[in-house]
Amino acid sequence: MHTATIPPVGSRFLTAITLLLFACGLSTAAEQRPNVVLLLSDDLGYKDIGCYDGPVKTPALNGLAAKGVRFTDFYSGAAVCSPSRAVLLTGRQNLRAGIYSWLHPSQNAHLRDQEVTLAEILQHHGYSTAHFGKWHLGLPSAGKQIPTPAEHGFDYWFATGNNASPSHRNPINFVRNGKPQGMIEGYAAQIVVDDAISWLDEKREPDAPFFLNVWFHEPHDPIAAPDGIVSNYGALDDQGAIYSGTIDNTDRAIDRLLAKLKEVDAPENTLIIYASDNGSYRADRVGNLRGIKGSNYDGGLRVPGIFYWPGTITAGHVERQAGGLVDLLPTICGLVGIDKPDGLHLDGSDLSPLLTQRYSEFKRHQPLFWLLPVSSPAVAMRDGNYSLVAQRDYNFPKDLEALAKVTEQLKVIIDDPTLNAFDLRQRILGRTMSNPEHEVIRGQYVRLNMFNESWVPAIKAGTYARFQLFDLEKDPGQKTDLANQHPDVLARLKKKLLEINASVMADAPEWK
Ligand SMILES: [Ca+2]
User: Fold this and answer.
1) Neighbours of 426 (CB within 10 A)
2) What does DSSP say about strands 5-9 and 35-42: parallel, antiparallel, or unpaired?
């Protein structure tokens, strides 16, 4: 469902609800607001980059962390791509924004037009806005009228609908402002930065502050990186070495972008934020955390979180309070001095007191909360050092007979008796197969398990069971369930979790 759109601001389209929300907060000029640069990796884990004790050489990111604030307990918006990106752009739980799981072109779900995005807020306050890289919040296809990044507040966009295809090398699926670009030679991270640099040089409004939203494809599968980089990490056909190579290559691209940013404006005028959209699909890159991408245990959720703005954000501070992508919209509004949108529920809180040594002023109005119905556990909440998770207590209407048949075929293909059912599922969902016939079977499995809109009523009516309680300070690996030991804490947090869940479900839309 789309709200009526009206074209009041030049070529930009704002929804009626957006106008209402901003009616009291219009600014007439760009004033002295800083540029905002958001750098996001795709599927990069808690222990990948150098400044988080990972094995990959990332001097550019390490430099931002050393001269800015690095969060030890930073969280993605969700355990998979699309919902996490929806959370980032809206500051709201993904179901409120209409995103129940990762998006596939066969679905009608997309980031709802009426959501107020960070890009719309900044654009409305005079920013020149641009998106580069993976989008995965829905693009028009097969005649479907799905809003593009332009309808979500970006003056300019250069994006792929989902992953770089066929891999990070020589991708064929970039679209610039609605126009397919065909094959582009090179590696996705460098291509994305090339385009961002050219936008900075030639296409932005030169007198306006800018919002550069750079969402890299790396290290999401299918992976590729230059041999000269991969060889620093192992054999050229070693998946771990290639994976590391994609991250190293991204850091080199970031280094080029940072040099350009310094050239176009003083670092004191540019806020830079780096994070990842969810945990790694590699169990060796999530540190000692439990679970990987797709899981609502911390391994699927915890990611790097780095904030850099010399002169304003504290230099060289390591922050141990929890933060997340859900906080970016209110935090950026707080840092650049823009009122948050009124009249809608924001799930995130403004982290700027933690970034500017006003620690006692920080207040989280609602515990961090993750809901991904297709995940196991389906729901998670963090309150202080406590983590509460729970399983879905309802079933999706799947074709179980077809699913059992395909699962048996995949068990034979993978042939790894050490994998339990959950890990097998994660392995199948998380990684493409090099054998084309096997990949077809994997595709059948993915589609049979994939969210579709007919599940929404079951999700909205669903309840939870098997609650587990962990103390992340003592037990970051979530190994010891304290639910029986601390029934009082369990009851208090469970009540809170169910309240947030009810609030989310009240906003979550039906899709047809
Ligand atoms: Ca991802």
Assistant:
1) 22
2) unpaired
Measure 388 CA to ligand 1 centroid, in angstroms. Answer: 23
CB count in 10 Å sphere of residue 396? 16
Residues 6+ apart with CB under 8 A from 327: 91, 348, 349, 350, 351
Q: Looking at the annotation, which residues are catalytic?
A: 81, 136
Query: Hunting for tokens 């000269």 — which residue is that?
Result: 228
Q: How far is the CA of 351 from the centre of ligand 1 (A)?
A: 23
User: Which tens digits make up the pLDDT trace of 98-117?
Assistant: 999 999 988 999 999 999 99
Q: In one letter, which amino acid is 84?
A: S
Rounded to whole angstroms, the Cα distance separating 265 from 251 reads 21
CATH number of the structural domain 32-367: 3.40.720.10
End-to-end CA distance of the chain: 9
Read off the pLDDT of each residue in 346-354 and give the average, rounded to a whole number. Answer: 98
Question: How much distance in Å is there from the Cα of 33 to the middle of ligand 1?
Answer: 30
- Those residues whose C-beta lies under 8 Å from the C-beta of residue 465, and which sit 6 or more positions away, are 390, 391, 392, 393
Has this prediction a pTM greater than 0.85? Answer: yes
Kindly list the domain boundaries of the chain, sorted by start residue: 32-367, 400-454
d(CA 52, CA 46): 7
